[in-house]
Amino acid sequence: KTTLERLIMGLYQPTEGHVRIDDTDIAQLHHVDIRRNIGCVAQDSNLFFGSIRDNITLGRPLTDDRDVMDAANRAGVTAFTQSDPAGLERQVGEGGAMLSGGQRQAVTIARAFLGRPPVLLMDEPTSAMDNRSEMHIKHQLAQLKPSETLILITHKTSMLDIVDRVIVMEKGSVIADGPKSQVLNDLKQGKVRAVS
Questions:
Q1: What pLDDT is stored for residue 129 in this prediction?
Q2: How many domains does the chain have?
Q3: How are beta strands 38-41 and 24-25 bridged, if at all?
Q4: Inter-residue contact 176 to 195 (CB < 8 Å)
Q5: How far apart are CA 78 and CA 5, in angstroms?
Q6: How far apart are CA 171 and CA 118, in angstroms?
Q7: Do 164 and 180 contact (CB within 8 A), yes or no?
């Protein structure tokens, strides 16, 4: 799944086939355009020494405060910063050590939400969150517009509530692909076979 994520982000080049977004091969796109149009939440919440605001606006230091607050609200960051006198200026420590795992994930989700990119690529985005925080994120993701795409990489079946299509991969191969209800039913009935 990490390889798939890196292929979509243009960090790896496919050895065969193509990665396309809206029928455009990403090999034809500049890496800056890819990063601007895909909000990515990697499985590991990568934070650097500085404030929560600095970590949300990484690569976009001139972002308007309203946009930063919108992203922070949508990601649930303000749930733990509103009672802190430092607010979004709260320091995260090296690697985010001064935040819990769920809080680190919320900050990286806010970073992905910033600028409202047309594609969100999220790898286990709520794995360290409590149920309440996960429900908040699910609600926000369920509000995406039809023109926005969510690529959700997850092992948590609870996160599948917000998707229309499910692709099951094993050992680098697609073993099931289709409408969510059909794929989940096929899995339940044992119609999907593992790759040998």
A1: 96
A2: 1
A3: unpaired
A4: no
A5: 28
A6: 29
A7: yes
* pTM assigned to the model: 0.92
Tens of pLDDT along the chain (196 residues) come to 788 898 999 999 999 999 998 899 999 999 889 988 999 999 888 899 999 999 999 988 899 999 999 999 999 999 999 999 999 999 999 999 999 999 999 999 999 999 999 999 999 999 999 999 999 999 999 999 999 999 999 989 999 999 999 999 988 889 999 999 999 999 999 998 766 5
List the structure tokens of 26: 């990403």
Contacts by residues 76-81 (CB-CB < 8 Å, ≥ 24 positions apart): 76/106, 76/109, 76/133, 76/136, 76/137, 77/52, 77/103, 77/106, 77/107, 77/110, 79/106, 79/133, 79/136, 80/106, 81/52
Which CATH number belongs to the domain containing residue 98 in this structure?
Answer: 3.40.50.300
User: Per the domain annotation, does 50 fall within a domain?
Assistant: yes
Residue 178 counted as domain residue: no
* Encoded tokens for 32: 């800056």
Task: Give exposure, 142-157, as e/b (b: 16+ Cβ within 10 Å).
Answer: eeeeeeeeebbbbeee
Report yes or no on 191 lying in a domain: no
Provide the pLDDT for residue 64: 96
Whether residue 186 lies inside any domain: the answer is: no
Task: Supply the range of the domain harboring residue 100.
Answer: 2-163
